[in-house]
Amino acid sequence: MEGRLFTFLGAIGGHGQEWIVLSHYILVIGIIFLVARAATRKMQLVPTGSQNVMEAFIAGIISVGEGTMGEKNARVYMPLIASLALVIFISNMIGVIPGFEAPTANINFTLSLALIVFVYYNYLGIKKNGFVNYFKHFMGPMPVLAPLMFPIEIISHLSRIVSLSFRLFGSIRGDDMFLMVLLMLVPWILPLPGFFMLTAFGLLQAFIFSILTYVYIAGSIMMEHEDH
């Protein structure tokens, strides 16, 4: 089905899966740069317009992380979380527009995002706690439980890759199919409530991905708090 769906960028370079994902991802990055440029072009003490929107977005990202790792840590890891949230949200919104396809509707794209999070939070955990102490934490509170707890913890961490990637992919792919069927059944004016619903779902998925990333990072760098 993917190869037969019309997209404006597909009309330029073909409707192959690789080109569709790459071209729409480049479009997402271009939009993000334009938004960032508009927000920072004329910085004001009292923000207005796009600067106000971006400052509210950044404050919202920080507030999401405060509950899991405190404001100080939330600000430290905000650049990564905010970047992921922007890429995911704008990718989701592109898919709502007829003639475009969300990069997040492709499992390879969402898997790449999940792997970035997985590698990064484990790197932070090893860097902060040391290689031995980090994986020693996987063995549970008592040595006798280590043979049972260690495999469970490894499987649990690996399952986060599947959880992050498939949750985002499944939701956005389902939204795209819903939108396609909706536009086939009714005229363009009538599906407006559906567009609003898909926008809300796209925002929700970006929020879920962001807060889970904060939770995973907090769990890897704040092990001493978990022990107490």
Question: How would you describe the overall organization of this protein?
Answer:
This protein is mainly alpha-helical. Helices cover 79% and strands 0% of the residues. It is built from nine helices and no strands. The protein has helices spanning 8-13, 17-40, 49-76, 78-96, 107-129, 131-136, 146-185, 192-221, 223-227. α2 packs across α4 (78-96). The longest helix has 40 residues, at 146-185. The radius of gyration is 20 Å and the shape is globular. The model has no long low-confidence stretch (mean pLDDT 88).
Task: Write a brief structural summary.
The chain is an all-alpha fold and 228 residues long. The chain has 9 helices and no strands.
User: SSE string, helix = H, strand = E?
Assistant: HHHHHHHHH
Count of strand segments: 0
- Tell me, what's the shape? globular
Helix content: over 70%
Which characteristics define this entry?
228 residues; mainly alpha; globular
Secondary structure elements and pairings:
Blueprint: H1 8-13, H2 17-40, H3 49-76, H4 78-96, H5 107-129, H6 131-136, H7 146-185, H8 192-221, H9 223-227
Helix pairs in contact: 2-3, 2-4, 3-4, 3-8, 4-8, 5-7, 5-8, 7-8
